[in-house]
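#struct-help
A.M.: can someone run this one for me? Single chain, 402 residues.
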Amino acid sequence: MHPLEALITAARENSPRLKELLASGLTGLAGRDGAAVWGQDFLFAVQSDAPATVSIDHAPPVPMRRAGGTPYWYLPRTLRLGTTHHYEYFANGRSLGSYDVAGYNPDSYPLPGVARGTLSNKKTLQSRVYPGMAANFWIYANAGVDLKNGAPLMVWQDGETIAGNVDLLRLRLQIVSDNLVAKRLIPPMIHVLIQPGDGGEAHGTRMRSVQYDTVSDRYGRYLLEEILPDVEKTYRVRKDAYSRAIAGASSGAICAMNAAWYFPDQFSRVLSHIGSYTALQWQPDKGQDGGYIIAHRVRREAKKNLRVWMSDGAEDIENFAGSWPLNNIQLANSLKMKGYDFHFRFGESAHAIAQGALDLPESLAWLWREYDPSKAAQNYEMEEAERAKPLFRVKIANRDAW
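D.P.: on it. Structure tokens below:
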């Protein structure tokens, strides 16, 4: 039995082993709010000193059970697959946090007979591009990677959420990529999982927004001058942009798009989930644009040879930095107007990785479709099915039209 399945089974059966499994940090649930999924079995779990309740899909909150002798409260449920589910925890009349979780597709579970890849130990690098900053990264190598001639490469931001067991609660990249490799839907590749740095100009705190949300070539240079040369000490990877992709969620998504935009000769495939194409690093006093400028640059500057998969949801963030849904729609329309090979999936979910996780088997296969290791270039063209579709339009759904 898979460890995640064992945890959920123990919760469903109210087994004495549940306390041990939660305390072990087996899936990354220990010490954090979250939800775990195995088939149609969903386990909602939260840490709280007071009795906790959970609202699922905006229904009235229901009481959760306490795992004896622990600060964890849990509730198993059977829910529909092929969609995302919203949940919010409460205790003492206040919210403890909310998120969305995916009803994962079949390729997000280990398939029989599929060779599994290997995850490296954590490595830490001191940066010169970001003086004073240190950052961790891991390598996940699919089984069968061609290290003699060079393997395709995919760079993932927020790598700490993909490395190890926590990946089971989010993208499930390791499982999905291995399954797609076995089905020959994507090539075996080297996945570089990079954690945002600490220190540097952030003065001892996380450098995530400085690295990810800043519209410049700096992060791309960081990858090309520091991270990838270190990777190449151990793994031989392809140098052509045709064989390189870059991915991220939220600020990691705009970071991925930025790197490919400034270095299209290095990265030609972009995976963007809930992208923060907003004003998080807009600093007019320094002449620095915010992420909203990317959609306008796509419209006004020469077309680059990029293939882009985007996803977002109608319940994404609205705050001082801008509108995540509207800016994602605007970027999608910019890509369409310029004839890019792109796909945009706009759902209902909030600012969560759930929709990206639900779509991952499809998005990775789409992004790497027709990949031929004997080639080093391809001119990406918009699919005919997309070309026939209209621009995305916005309608008010929760107020009168006038």
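A.M.: thanks! The longest strand covers residues 94-102.
D.P.: also worth noting: DSSP finds ten helices and 20 strands in the chain.
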